[in-house]
C-alpha cells in the first residue's frame, strides 16, 4: 500500500486503525492532517525537514503497518501484488533490553524531542483540521467512485475513493458539463502525489489555475484504488472557482487508468459523469433502529401511458394501530430503471368517512372520470421529488397516525414523466413509512405555499430570467394561526418545487415590513434533484408574517407562452413547509389578478357565458371571443414586452387561496390583497474570501520556529522575535 501524508505532526509517529469505507482498511496516518507547504510537506516524506526526528518514533499498533517509509524498484508504478522495498533503517542496528517483566523487542532510537516542542504540538492541535466526513455519495452507477465530505468552518474537506491507479478528476460545473468548470486532477505518479487546480472556459479548454485553492491532505493507493483527501475554502473569490453555498451543486467526476501529465492525451472517455448534491445541507440521516415496523404504499402494476405526463392516483388504508404512533422516517421505493420516470410523489390525507371500497382501483388524477372519493383528499402530509432520498424527522417531531384526527385513508399521487413516449412500462413505485409507539413531543404538519397551479401563472417566451411570486399572505397566516397557535409554528424543512424552466427558487420571509433571512433557497435549481432542505435552525412563523415563494425561470429555448400546470413542460412555483405543531392549514397560496394581467395586452372587457370558468373576452376586437390563454398566445411577445410584463405582474394585487386540512376554506379565501411592502430588505452577509488554512499554517510555522530555536539554542543564548 502506498501512502502520502501531509502533516506537521509526523514526528509523533502516532498509529491507529483507519475506520473509513472499505476496501481500504487498517491504513496508517497521523491523527491530524493539515496543509503546510512552508514546512516542506509538498512532496511526501522524502521532503521532510531533517530536524524532524522520525527515526525511533514509530508507533506500533497491533496488526498495523509501520509508517510508510517506502520506495519502489525502478521507480515504476506498482502493480497488484508487487513487493515494496523498505527504506534502510539506521536505528535498527542494535537493540536494548526491556524493563524486567516486559516482553518483546525495543527499538533503539534517538532521545525524545524536548518537552516544550512536544507541548507545542498539542497546543497547536486546534489549528489543524480534523478528518470527519459526515456525508458521502456514490457518484457513478458502478460504485467505482465514492465521494465523502465534511464542512470545517469556512472550508470543506473532500475524500475521493476511486477504483483506478491513474488520475482522478473532480469538480463543479454550472450545468454538469465540462464548459466553465472548476476542477482538480490528482493521483500518485510513480509514488509522487499530485493535485492541481484547473478550470475550463466556454469551449472546454483545460487550463491550470494561477491561484491554487485546493490543498492536498493525503494521497494513497492500494492494488485497486486511489484515495485523495483535500480541502478548499467555501468562497475563494477566484474568478475561476465556483463558490460552495447551500444551493444545489452539480458535481462532475472522471478518472483514467493512467496518470495525468501536462500535455498528455489521457482523455477519460466514458469514465465521467455528473451528480447534483447539496454539500452544505445539514446532516439528516439520523440513526433509525432497523427493527422498527414499517408499511409500504406502492402502486401495483400501473401501466405508464405513452404520453408526456401522467398523474396516477391510488387510495391506501393506513394500518389499524388502535393507539397513536409517529412516523419518523419516509423512504422512496422507486422501481429500478424508473428513476427518471417517477418525477414526484405526494401523499394526501383523505376524508375519514370513506370505506374500503375506495381501495379497489387506482385512476388517472385530475381526470373527468376520476372517482369522487379522490376529491376529499386535499391535505398534503408528505412530498417527495425526483433525486430526493429518504427523509428522517427531527428527534422531537413525528407524523401522527393512529388517532381519530389522523389519516385513515390516504391518496398517493405519482407524477410519471415520459417525454420520449416509451410504451409498455409497468410501475410499482411508492413510499415506505417507518413508525414507532415511542411518541415524539410534536405532531408534524405540511403547508403547501406558493402560486396556485393554474394557467394564470404564465411566462412569456425567450426570457433569460423571468420571476414569479406566490404569496402565503399575512391575512391567511394571521387567521389560521390566531385560531390555533398564536405563538406561531416552527419550520424545520422545506422542499422547493418547480419544473423544467425553473432555474432558482427562494422562500422569502417578511415580518412587519422587515425582510428576514431567507427561509430556504436554491440558486442553482436542478429539475432532476429536488429534496427537502433541512434548516440549520428552526424558523418561527408568527401570525401576520408573509411568506413569498420566488421562482426564477428561463424560457430562452421556447417560442410560446409557458403556462402553470401539471405537465413538466408547464410550470409550478411551490414550497412545501414541514413544521410543528400541526394546525388546520394545508394550502396558503395566491393568483395574480386575472383581469389586470389581460389589461397588459390591451383587453378591456370580459364576460362569462356560464358562472364558472372560462371567461371570454368581449373587447377589443382583435381578442373578441378568445379565452385568456388564446389571447395571451395571440399577443406578439418580444423580449422587451416580457421584461415589462414581469415588472408589471409582480406589482399586481393577488387573490388569496387559504385552505383548511378538511378541504374547507378560511374566510380569507378569495379576498384581494397586495404583495408586502418591504421597508427594510434583508442584507445578505458579505462573502469573505478567507484563507484560514494559510493563516493557520503561518501561525503554526511561526510558533514552531520560536519553540524550535528556544529548545535547541545553547543556554544563555538571546534571540529576538
Automatic annotation (TrEMBL):
Species annotation: Anolis carolinensis
Cofactor: Cu(2+)
SMART domains in the cross-refs: DoH (SM00664)
Composition bias type Basic and acidic residues, residue spans: 89-102
GO biological process assignments: dopamine catabolic process; norepinephrine biosynthetic process; octopamine biosynthetic process
Stated family: Belongs to the copper type II ascorbate-dependent monooxygenase family.
Main location: endoplasmic reticulum
UniProt subcellular location: Endoplasmic reticulum membrane
Region annotated Disordered, chain positions: 71-106
Pfam families given in the database record: Cu2_monoox_C, Cu2_monooxygen, DOMON
Molecular function (Gene Ontology), one example: copper ion binding
Domain of life: Eukaryota
Domain (DOMON): residue spans on this chain: 143-256
Membrane topology summary: Single-pass type I membrane protein
Keyword Iron: no
Protein name: Monooxygenase DBH like 1
Signal sequence segment: none
Entry keyword set: Copper, Disulfide bond, Endoplasmic reticulum, Glycoprotein, Membrane, Metal-binding, Monooxygenase, Oxidoreductase, Signal, Transmembrane, Transmembrane helix
One GO location term (cellular component): secretory granule membrane
